[in-house]
UniProtKB/TrEMBL annotation:
TM segment ranges: 489-508
Species of origin: Cannabis sativa
Protein's name according to its UniProt entry: APO domain-containing protein
Domain APO: 172-257, 342-427
GO MF annotations in UniProt: RNA binding
Keywords: Membrane, Transmembrane, Transmembrane helix
Length: 539
């Protein structure tokens, strides 16, 4: 075996093997000799075998891979290599909840109550601390640049999606909300829209827009995020804007079209639900000419120009994917301090500490709730839905086949669109898109494992039945059956004998059956004698 840190040579008919750090020299007629080597040299780095260089490429797998090198001689040491990866080879999509199911809480109620009790215990006997921002009405200054980055990333994503639609074909169904990225629509019968029975579940594809890929989620715009909740009779008087834009505005982005209240002093809290604003008359007026971060704007549809060649398409796809990841990561950071609420029954989203009071929930059993929303903490997928689509393994190859549906993966529409345009897929989506899973070229190849499994199961079943029938009445089987430790007749006789014994002792000792059973157990185990179990004589 030749290794990068090892060397082998043959001298005088004796083989000598040198290992990392320490060497062992063995000859047929000589004792082992230990040789110490320097491990600081660059040429003696740990590499058990250069033939195992593929281990570096197998780091994409989640499971641990152990490689143990064994030698024919016992004196040679063995090495174990463990490779770990953060993302598995094949993962399932997040669970889909039907309209009749309520979304689970991001943090279970039991853990929330436990954490609240712990906070109360820690606060007991300690002075009250001032409320930190943004709960006191002030902005978190360190999060203002993040809010501008998220807002500009959203604008960049929309503009780039409009340009990519000129180079990548995206289909949308006329009757349902499903889309597909690829030259032709997929053949799967998954349509649940109007007249689906006449079409037998097939989709009727048409051209998609950027709003089909990047779903717009709207929310109410709040002038004061700490103000009173929106009542039901004012649901049409308050404007609705994209929820992500509202989150950025509350985090510090100033947009002239959507004014909001900015406090320069913390609020004065009266009780849990009441507060007053501090006096800001002594403070100087803010400088309107102060420099502010730049804000991007959307490009109109008639000014959109698609990429002219493949290089521009690839660069545009990489920029789009970076904007997508930057927007989602920044929104996750903002959601840690600025609360976002979502209805547990419908997709309604509200940016603020508590949800609005508009009774416009039309989800399952909304009559029992009088149309009110069941507000709970939101996750990033509620604010920015990923919109999963089927992954096309080869855009220039054959289309997707209905028989191979279980082999195809799925991924966010933005990621699939950028991948077909030439961008590299992020590692966190390789498992759901099944990029490392082999796909049969012929549907008959996919049916072979199931047929072999069924044939093997039937053969084993038939063989076991024949063996059981042939050996049921044999002499050896009857002989072995007589030696079984559990015989039904013996067990019945033994139970009857135990019951009669307990009854006799109960009548003899005039004790309860429980005490009698305990006495019998003591006598059987030798912890007591029969004389000690008799009742004491009466005076």
């Amino acid at each position: 075996m030749e290794c990068g840190s090892c060397s082998s040579s043959v001298a005088g008919g004796a083989a000598m093997a040198l290992w990392c750090g320490k060497g062992l020299v063995s000859t047929p007629k000589m004792l082992p000799l230990r040789v110490f080597l320097s491990v600081n040299s660059e040429s003696l780095k740990f590499n058990p075998c250069p033939g195992l260089g593929f281990l570096h490429s197998m780091q994409h797998f989640k499971h641990k891979l152990k490689v143990q090198l064994k030698s024919s001689q016992k004196m040679h040491p063995s090495y174990a290599s463990i490779i770990k990866a953060e993302h598995p080879q094949n993962t399932d999509l997040p669970r889909y909840y039907s309209r009749k199911e309520k979304k689970p809480f991001p943090v279970p109620i039991v853990e929330l109550r436990r954490a609240a009790r712990e906070r109360l215990k820690k606060r007991k006997g300690q002075p009250r601390k001032p409320v930190p921002p943004p709960k006191n009405g002030m902005l978190v200054k360190s999060f203002i640049p993040i809010a501008y980055d998220v807002y500009n990333a959203r604008i960049t994503l929309i503009n780039n999606l409009k340009k990519l639609l000129k180079a990548v074909t995206v289909h949308a169904c006329k009757y349902c909300n499903e889309i597909h990225v690829g030259p032709t629509g997929h053949p799967f019968r998954s349509c649940r829209g109007q007249n689906t029975s006449a079409r037998r579940g097939l989709h009727d594809w048409t051209t998609a827009t950027w709003e089909d890929i990047f779903l717009p989620v709207d929310a109410y715009h709040l002038y004061d995020r700490l103000g009173k909740r929106i009542p039901h009779n004012q649901r049409f008087a308050i404007p609705r804007i994209p929820a992500l834009v509202e989150l950025c505005i509350q985090a510090g982005v100033d947009i002239p079209d959507f004014p909001t209240k900015r406090r320069r002093k913390p609020i004065i809290r009266i009780n849990k639900s009441e507060f007053v604003d501090a006096d800001e008359s002594e403070l100087p007026d803010p400088d309107p000419d102060a420099p502010k971060p730049p804000i991007l704007t959307e490009i109109p549809d008639f000014d959109i120009v698609g990429p002219s060649n493949e290089e521009e398409t690839t660069l545009l796809a990489e920029e789009t994917l970076q904007a997508w990841e930057k927007m989602r990561k920044g929104a996750q950071k903002l959601m840690k301090l600025y609360p976002v609420r979502v209805c547990g029954y419908c997709p309604e989203v509200h940016i603020g500490p508590s949800g609005h009071k508009a009774q416009n929930c039309g989800a399952h059993k909304h009559q029992q709730r009088n149309g009110q929303h069941g507000w709970q903490s939101a996750v990033i997928d509620d604010l920015i839905p990923p919109r999963y689509v089927w992954h096309v393994p080869d855009v220039n190859g054959p289309p997707l086949q209905r028989e191979l549906r279980s082999f195809y993966g799925q991924g966010p529409a933005v990621v699939e669109m950028c991948m077909q345009a030439g961008a590299a897929v992020p590692e966190q989506f390789r498992g759901t898109m099944r990029l490392d899973v082999g796909i049969p070229t012929d549907p008959k190849e996919a049916e072979m494992p199931s047929k072999l499994t069924m044939a093997g199961a039937e053969g084993v079943k038939t063989t076991s039945q024949k063996v059981a029938t042939a050996g049921q009445n044999s002499t050896e089987a009857l002989h072995q059956r007589s030696k079984l430790p559990y015989c039904p007749m013996r067990m019945a006789l033994g139970g009857f004998a135990i019951a009669m014994t307990l009854g006799y002792f109960t009548l003899y000792s005039k004790k309860k059956p429980e005490a009698t059973a305990l006495d019998v157990a003591k006598v059987a185990t030798g912890t007591s004698s029969p004389e000690n179990t008799r009742p004491p004589p009466r005076n």
